[in-house]
Each structure stands twice: as structure tokens, then as C-alpha cells.
Automatic annotation (TrEMBL):
<dbReference type="InterPro" id="IPR049943">
    <property type="entry name" value="Ser_HO-MeTrfase-like"/>
</dbReference>
<comment type="pathway">
    <text>Amino-acid biosynthesis; glycine biosynthesis; glycine from L-serine: step 1/1.</text>
</comment>
<dbReference type="GO" id="GO:0019264">
    <property type="term" value="P:glycine biosynthetic process from serine"/>
</dbReference>
<feature type="domain" description="Serine hydroxymethyltransferase-like">
    <location>
        <begin position="10"/>
        <end position="385"/>
    </location>
</feature>
<keyword id="KW-0663">Pyridoxal phosphate</keyword>
<feature type="site" description="Plays an important role in substrate specificity">
    <location>
        <position position="230"/>
    </location>
</feature>
<dbReference type="InterPro" id="IPR015422">
    <property type="entry name" value="PyrdxlP-dep_Trfase_small"/>
</dbReference>
<dbReference type="GO" id="GO:0005829">
    <property type="term" value="C:cytosol"/>
</dbReference>
<keyword id="KW-0554">One-carbon metabolism</keyword>
<dbReference type="GO" id="GO:0004372">
    <property type="term" value="F:glycine hydroxymethyltransferase activity"/>
</dbReference>
<protein>
    <recommendedName>
        <fullName>Serine hydroxymethyltransferase</fullName>
        <ecNumber>2.1.2.1</ecNumber>
    </recommendedName>
</protein>
<feature type="binding site">
    <location>
        <begin position="126"/>
        <end position="128"/>
    </location>
    <ligand>
        <name>(6S)-5,6,7,8-tetrahydrofolate</name>
    </ligand>
</feature>
<comment type="function">
    <text>Catalyzes the reversible interconversion of serine and glycine with tetrahydrofolate (THF) serving as the one-carbon carrier. This reaction serves as the major source of one-carbon groups required for the biosynthesis of purines, thymidylate, methionine, and other important biomolecules. Also exhibits THF-independent aldolase activity toward beta-hydroxyamino acids, producing glycine and aldehydes, via a retro-aldol mechanism. Thus, is able to catalyze the cleavage of L-allo-threonine.</text>
</comment>
<comment type="subunit">
    <text>Homodimer.</text>
</comment>
<dbReference type="InterPro" id="IPR015421">
    <property type="entry name" value="PyrdxlP-dep_Trfase_major"/>
</dbReference>
<dbReference type="InterPro" id="IPR001085">
    <property type="entry name" value="Ser_HO-MeTrfase"/>
</dbReference>
<feature type="modified residue" description="N6-(pyridoxal phosphate)lysine">
    <location>
        <position position="231"/>
    </location>
</feature>
Amino acid sequence: MHVPALPTITSSDPDLADLIQREASRQHDTLRMIASENYVSQAVLEATGTVLTNKYSEGYPGKRYYEGQRFIDPIEELAIARAKSVFGVEHANVQPYSGSPANLAVYMALAAPGDTVMGMALPMGGHLTHGWPVSATGAWFRPVQYTVRRSDGLIDFDEVRDIALRERPKLIFCGGTALPRTIEFARFAEIAREVDAVLVADIAHIAGLIAGGAHPTPVGHAPIITTTTHKTLRGPRGAMLLCTSDYSKAIDKAVFPGLQGGPHNHTTAGIAVALREAAQPSFSVYAHQIVANARALASSLLERGFDLVSGGTDNHLILLDLTGKNIGGKPAARALDRAGIETNYNTVPYDTRKPFDPSGVRIGTPALTTRGLTEAQMPQVADWISRAVDAAVKDDDQALDTIAAEVRELLSAYPMPGWH
């Protein structure tokens, strides 16, 4: 059953309660390998389900537009202080509703419509809000994109520098959603200084790894850092903006009143809880285990004939190119889901297929690591992935159901926060 228990919902809205319980059960019984997902602690669940959701708090601590903030202000101040401590930054804004609005706030603070902005192309592993044409950031600004090399799937910094020198962008974004290798913040910073651009590090995927010391930090290289608070950081669905003091006023003004009204105080409380957890020694162990699991899984997949973008991983994420397996990413992801392995289909660099039916599947190890799995279980996970892909090619649903049963049996020994 769901933990915390849901007696009132069960009584007043049994249809919804049933769906929540079934989703919790699904999360317990499934290898959750979407790289952007995780499990929050019971403490985070409790914080996000409190009466804090009742309170409007437009403005910032000490400067609100509503009364009754005597307890809300200290909660936000606590989250801010913990963010500054965990990441070693001068200023933190914990109000953004999610990652995309956080990135939009950077544009609003530092750029004007029509300004040139630079980011990694979406099909190469970047994010929509780094200037991709279908995003508002591509429609309102003049985007230029850098890529990765065909030969090894790594960022070509000669290309990055050439584009920056030619286009002179106002902002340069580094980071993305499907980058399996270490982000070289220092090299981006050098290029940004050369063209007088502001470097923005989007660490949404790797924030927990950075907090735990398992990935280099952008602090000292990027004056502005954006991040979500879930994914590897293992907090609620929210976001933060971290920056040097030089940019604090412009960033805060862009978030409120520029883009948002009142913050979601229950989410702020959940962020505060997650940041306290991230400051504990055990969190560093967890962050390093995520990377160890991903590397072990990548090695096992390579042994089974999978083609991995860039040949492996340095972080929590692996991008599989299934071209050589004679199946697209979408049917493979659906087959894996039936087999109890939750992933997402994803484009790969220089993909010849359409984005809604691409060649790749993206997987990650944060949620598996939270459940307690280690390198010892990764060969078995790789074997299940391999068997499921083979079964998908053969339309063998019975084989997929067999794998799902094996997955459930394994996971029964690993507790899940939020389910008993």
C-alpha cells in the first residue's frame, strides 16, 4: 500500500485512490530506468502533502504581497540556505516551478528578443529550452546550435569555439537531457570568456551527482546554473536557479514578477528536505553508486552487442542506438515496458528516423540505485534488456511477460520509498 497511507482519499474518492495505489504498485514492481526519474524519500512525500499547499506567497522572504508569512518565510529561507551550502554558490532561487521556466528566467534576465543564444542541438542530446526552434526560446531568440562528433559522440570544442566566434552569442548553454559523458565546464567557460558571453550550466540531470561529488561542479566556471530538483537530486518536481551575486537581482526579478506568481510552498518544503538529505555523507555514497551502476550496466550491454552512443557513460545515463538490432526505439521501449523495464525512446546523434519514432532508447540508474541495486545486479538487468529487445523483434509477448515476472521477483527484495 501507499506510504503515507491514503485513508481519506480512499473513503472520499475511491476511484482516484485506486489509481494512486496501482501506480505505486507499478513503481514498486518495475525497473524504473528513465534517466530523469527517481524515488523521493518518505520525508519528501510528507512535506509535499502538507497544508503548505494552502498558502499564497507572492514575492520573496520579507517582501511578500500577502500577509500570514511568518512560517512560510523561514521555510523558503531554509531551502535557500541549504541550496547555497550544498552547491557552494552565492545566491539561490528555489521558486521556479520546473526546469523550463527556470531556463526561461535566464533568458528574461539577460537577453532581449532577437538576441543570439547558443546551445546543444536537441537531436544531439540538448534540451528544448536551449534554443531549439519548436521552443519559445527558439522562436523569441536567434538560436545557434553545436553538435557532437559523428566518430565518437563527444562534443567537438573546436566547433563550439568556431560557432561562438562567428555568431557572438549573448548566452551559451551547456548541459542537456541525453549526454552520457562528463560536461567539461572549464572548456565552455574559456570559450564564453573569449566571446564575452554568459555561460549557463543546465545541470538538471546531474545535480545530485554534483552534490554528491560524483561529477565536477560548474561553480567557478558558469556564473548561472539552472537545475531541476528531482532526477538525481531526489527531490520533488521543482527547480532552482543558482548564481553569483552579480546576477542575483536580475534572476530573482525574472522569476517573480517576470514569469511566475506565488511559489508552491509545499514544493519548497520538499526541496528543503531533499537538500538536507543531499548534505548527508550517505548521499555521496548514493551518487557514486549511481555512476558505478551505470558504468557496470554499460559494460554488460556492450558485451551483449549493444551500440552505445559515445561508447559508454561517465554519469547516470546510457543512450542505446538500436539501429543494429533491427528495431526502432519506440517499439523497443514499449516492449521493455511490458517486460517491467521502464525507459523512453530517444533520438540518437545524426538519427535518420523521425523524433517520434527514433533509433534510440535512453536509460539511467538513479531509481535503481535508490532501491539498493548495485553493480552485482547490472549484468542481470542487461540480460533482461537484451532478451526483451530480442523478444520485441520476434513479437514474442510471452517472453516479455516472463521477464516482467523475473523483474518483480528481484525487486521484491528491495524496498521502495512510498510503498509498503
